[in-house]
Amino acid sequence: MEDELLLMLPGPVPLPERVRAVMARQAINHRGAEFGNAYADIVRVLKGLFGTKNNPLVISGSGTAGMEAAVANFGKGRKMAHLINGKFGERMYTIGQRYASEARPIESEWGTPLSLEGLKSALEDGCEVVTMVHNETSAGILNPAGEVGKICRKYDALFIMDGVTSIGGDLVKADDWGVDIAVVGSQKCLAAPAGLAAVSVSDRAWDRVVKNPPYYLDLPAYKKNAVKEPMETPYTPAVPLFLALREACLIIEEEGIDARIARHHRMAGAVRKAVKAWGLEMFPQIDSLHTYSNTVTAACIPTGSNDKDFRGIVKKLGIQIAGGQDHLKDKIFRIGHMGAVSAPELLATLAATEYAIRTTGHQVRESGVMAAAEDLG
Ligand SMILES: *Cc1c(COP(=O)(O)O)cnc(C)c1O
């Protein structure tokens, strides 16, 4: 049954029981203390995960709503530069094309390093706002936010970072890195249900907020309502999702941010070890600045196999992993290891994947399950 599948996707991720339980509650007023306290709990925890002193604003809408809010409130009518090495980098560019006076793509092949030289020349040419995806989910590559932040500061440009699959799973230091606007989505590393986005904004970005933001995604309006006592949102929010996100944040707080990041790193390391043992290639081409993602691993599908058969075998064993998007379909598979994931789910996933690799005719070098288990115990 679909609802019994173990989701090892780069979002949505399985929900802890406590998170599911709070969504069964009776409705509450969104202009009252209980809602305000839930929002305040979310903000307290998210600040730590974002690495910022600024209070993130929570929007009812998926991660893309957060991306659009960032571009529309800070890039509208301005010259924007978009760093691209995967699907979500492309999405930022597509959004930029709707709002910017000029949207300039700085393209690299999916899963290959960003062009920092290309960024510098765009900034020399007067681009005022830059977008970058920190953890490019489509390709399993982690992009150098600190380096990009430094370059943006040097040219006094605003830096928008999509942290949708890094925040809550990997180290993010928005303030130290010079990130002006950071975005997260609820259904990825935070292990909350889909449908909420959070956006943090630096003081220097607030000084440059556009005069005519969109109505529903008007971030100054979100800010004005968030400083009320109790905290509020401008319009009726998705209240059950707020309560669920609050519970997810309390779970994160109980685990501790450092422990949570260390756990994600441990899971990622084990998957990479398995890929190596299988004799498969990692998809991203990394360098000294770019690294493999610690929240999703992208590896090449064994030659001779295709996406449907390969993932179909894994799915028959009750586990859903992700394929490649767009032109990477049939070329790569992706294992999400974000959220509440720990050794039992990971080992089951690696066992099912290993079974698919072998039954589709690939000779593995050695058992990836064995290799990973050594690291997970
Ligand atoms: C999932 C994701 C998003 C947002 O997608 P939604 O479907 O709108 O939640 C944005 N950026 C990255 C890197 C993602 O992985």
In words, what does this structure look like?
By secondary structure, the chain is of the alpha/beta class. The protein is built from 14 helices and 15 strands. The strands form four sheets. It has a seven-stranded mixed β-sheet, sandwiched between helices. The protein has a three-stranded antiparallel β-sheet with strand order 6-7-11. Strands 12-15-14 form a three-stranded antiparallel β-sheet, covered by helices on one side. Strand 3, helix 4 and strand 4 form a beta-alpha-beta unit. The radius of gyration is 21 Å and the shape is globular. The two termini are 31 Å apart. The mean pLDDT is 97. Bound molecules: pyridoxal-5'-phosphate (PLP). The site of pyridoxal-5'-phosphate (PLP) has 13 residues, from helix 3. Pyridoxal-5'-phosphate binds at residues 10-11, 62-64, 88, 133, 137, 162, 164-165, 185, 188.
Task: Please summarize what this structure is.
The protein has 377 residues and is an alpha/beta fold. The protein contains 14 helices and 15 strands.
